[in-house]
TrEMBL record:
Keywords: Oxidoreductase
SMART domains cross-referenced by the UniProt entry: PKS_KR
Family matches, as Pfam families: adh_short
Name by which UniProt lists this protein: SDR family oxidoreductase
Location of the Ketoreductase domain: 3-171
Molecular functions per Gene Ontology: oxidoreductase activity
Organism classification: Bacteria, Pseudomonadati, Pseudomonadota, Alphaproteobacteria, Sphingomonadales
Family: Belongs to the short-chain dehydrogenases/reductases (SDR) family.
Organism this protein belongs to: Sphingomonas paeninsulae
């Protein structure tokens, strides 16, 4: 039986690029998303018969059990890699952020990752050499202004990853977190609360670079097969990782630059 990867957020962006990358290496790909049309577009890019698609709201713990059971019926019970990737972007002053948005980002970006790990454990344990890879962020290395809710979820994913990598070692399961900088995906088109600018426009105004999704897909492979628990991706993420350790004061200055890029009265 060919190896199998299950990808949340498989309807676009990082999830789609990762599906293409692993399919090209002969893996059977499980796509999960709330966006059926997006998953159909991803599936059309994969080899015929080499994937399955599943509607999944990662906030629903019971859906996780049902969907993974459906997927593993097609893989003889194996999951070699569970990629906890689904997430949403958000930004803006906390004082102006609706409580519904705070709840939504925590439920999807953090609780959804916990639920995926919990539901996937028995399949990963039963598959020799398996891995759980979680999408964290450079925001999980250092929290910039106007990103408190988002950064909190990504720090949480980082902490969960570190804990589970030790907890699950006895079962032969690697647990890893990729930590990309700004990735050129539709998530960046979301407007920042309290600003007329999208996150994409703010990043450009601050003079920061975007990392192609193809580089992130390659990093997922490296994370699952390598020995590093955390994998910063892109020049920005690697710089943040370095500065967070050795020069946090410079990061504070950079954060103020990003806040100013949002426009007058919104910092």
């Amino acid at each position: 039986m060919m190896k199998a990867i299950f990808i949340t957020g498989g309807g676009s962006g990082i999830g789609r690029a990762t599906a293409e990358y692993f399919a090209a290496k002969g893996w059977f790909v499980g796509l999960a998303d709330v966006n059926a049309a997006g998953m159909a577009e991803t599936a059309a890019l994969l080899p015929a018969g080499g994937s399955s698609s599943h509607i999944l709201d990662v906030r629903d713990r019971e859906q996780w059990d049902r969907v993974l059971a459906e997927f593993t019926e097609k893989t003889d019970g194996r999951i070699d890699l569970l990629f906890n990737n689904a997430g949403i972007g958000a930004g803006g002053p906390l004082s102006e952020t609706p409580t519904e948005e705070i709840d939504r980002i925590i439920d999807i970006n953090l609780k959804g990752v916990f639920y995926g790990a919990q539901a996937g454990f028995k399949y990963l344990k039963a598959t020799a050499g398996s891995a759980l890879v979680n999408t964290s962020s450079a925001a999980g290395l250092y929290a910039s202004p106007r990103m408190s809710s988002y950064a909190a979820t990504k720090f949480g994913v980082r902490a969960m990853t570190q804990s589970l990598d030790q907890e699950w070692a006895e079962h032969g399961i690697k647990v890893r977190a990729i930590m990309p900088g700004f990735i050129d995906t539709p998530l960046l088109d979301v407007s920042s609360t309290g600003s007329n600018l999208s996150i994409r426009e703010m990043v450009r105004a601050a003079g920061l670079e975007f990392t192609p999704v193809e580089k992130v897909a390659e990093a997922v492979w490296k994370a699952a097969h390598g020995n590093h628990t955390f994998l910063p991706i892109g020049k920005t993420a690697r710089k943040i990782a370095f500065l967070a350790r050795w020069a946090p004061g410079l990061l504070m200055q950079r954060g103020r630059t990003l806040a100013k890029a949002a426009g007058p009265g919104t910092a």
